[in-house]
Predict the structure of TILa domain-containing protein.
Amino acid sequence: MEGVTNYALIVAKTKDIKEVQFDDKRPPFKWLQVEGTEYSWAHYTYDKGRSHHTMMSPRIGVYSVGTVDRNSYGAPAACGLLTCAYKGKFYPAGKPFWDDSACTELCECNPSTGSVNCQKSQCKVGEECKVVAGVSTCVATPTE
């Protein structure tokens, strides 16, 4: 709808707000403590027109609202898969990742708990561990 002013209302546990990311950066939100609770809230006014934003946090609630003249809407923001915060980075559920540059600890985000589970592992036979674009990965061992 033309001329709609869109807002996001965000709620998170106060202890988690430092881990919230908005479009892959720390958000410019001013967080306010909900008195007598362990929660804080913030709001964000989107730029006019169509846009797409992402938010990531271990646990967060986002409600999207918009107003124009005498019309308005409100809906929970669409959620993707739960992400897990681990050692300062966010990882999507269902995509295993190596915790170290030697590929000895294979980890995965647990979507039901938001925590990361790791176990000892190694690359398959015929593969070696390489760091590619800053990410450890198993690649085929070069043949001579």
User: Anything to note?
Assistant: Residues 5-76 form one domain. The longest strand covers residues 5-13.
